[in-house]
């Protein structure tokens, strides 16, 4: 009989059941065993399915990668530790000394900062107004990558993705679209000719504010180029987060349907409220991209909306203190309705003049609309607005 030390390590048998559990197990393992060298070869070459090492991808990571690819109509997917880790892997894989990037001037702040970091490695970034085709066309000459967002933060601009895809292709550049605000429920950018789609799975796809994950979908050769950088650089996701993300994704469609119909109702309520200066929501006919959004977005206009009150800090504080259900959270895409204040959070480190230029004064609020009962949300907002 083996000694106690050895028994403790080897006596428990990993018994795989003959039938399958209704949900996928969590494969919480960093290493995998191989029967012999033939199996090593078979798994490395993909002849047999299996895992090599944690960083090369786990069954939980692959399950969500496959789901993301399918719901986006792409032929390969990649899951990373966060949305930003995916963007970092994309930039490292596709850019190098002397590369030029054209980016939307409305880009998510961290994305723009990450691109600016790459200037130290000889990557130049030029920001443009995506609504201006001539400006985009001129900037794209000699560029390798165009970076856009389906719905921008926080002004919720919607660029013509099909036109941008054509312009990028003509210039020989790849187009990557950050689809986080729309989610695959409202937009599948690959169908509009986009090369790569990035999702912060942290937001709507997971949908419960308890996971950090990022996704990438596109053609297999391109995604695999990014995957090898992500694996080397350790930018991949772990089994538990991947499992949670897969569970969250199950309800994406019902959550988005409710959240975007709630958002339209709240946008209309705010639009007619005397205390509200302006509402930014692609579903309102007054929105500058309302017509474009009809061809880019499907099944509604999304769950993000922004609105402007008087630029008065104490007025915003009164609003926040009087809301019962709607809380201030500096993220988005959860099941509950939340508010953020760009001037003191996402755009905090800009100078007042830079914020002014973007129109992000102290009265500008962004709302991520959740799946509560629409009447309760309207009552909550109406009541708090009456107190300001
Ligand atoms: C949150 C977010 C990101 C970054 O994703 P993380 O998962 O936080 O790394 C990128 N783009 C947009 C539009 C986002 O909302």
Written as H for each helix and E for each strand, in order along the chain, the element string is HHHEHEHEHEHEHEEHHHEHEHEEHEH
User: How would you characterize the largest beta sheet?
Assistant: 7 strands, mixed
The structural class is alpha/beta
The quaternary organization reads as single chain
Bound molecules: pyridoxal-5'-phosphate
Name the helicity range: 25-40%
By DSSP, the count of extended strands is 12
Please indicate the percent range of residues in DSSP E strands (runs of 2 or more).
5-15%
Biggest sheet strand order reads: 1-7-6-5-4-2-3
Give the radius of gyration: 23 Å
Unreliable residue stretches = none
The N- to C-terminal Cα distance equals: 77 Å
Figure out the total of helices.
15
Shape: globular
- Determine the mean pLDDT: 96
Describe what you observe in this structure.
- The chain is α/β, with parallel strands linked by helices and 388 residues long.
- The protein has 15 helices and 12 strands.
- The strands form 2 sheets. It has a 7-stranded mixed sheet, with helices on both faces.
- β2, α5 and β3 form a beta-alpha-beta unit.
- The longest helix is centred in the last third of the chain and has 20 residues.
- The protein starts with a helix and ends with a helix.
- The mean pLDDT is 96.
- Bound molecules: pyridoxal-5'-phosphate (PLP).
